Amino acid sequence: SDLLYNVQQIPALVRTVDRLLASPGNTLTKGDNDNDGNDGGGIMLLIVRWRKPDLERSFFERTAEQCHMTWQLIPHPALPCPLSWHQVGDPTCDASNDYFGGHAIAVGQDDNRKVLADISEDDTERLMTWEQY
Question: Has this prediction a pTM greater than 0.90?
Answer without folding.
Answer: no
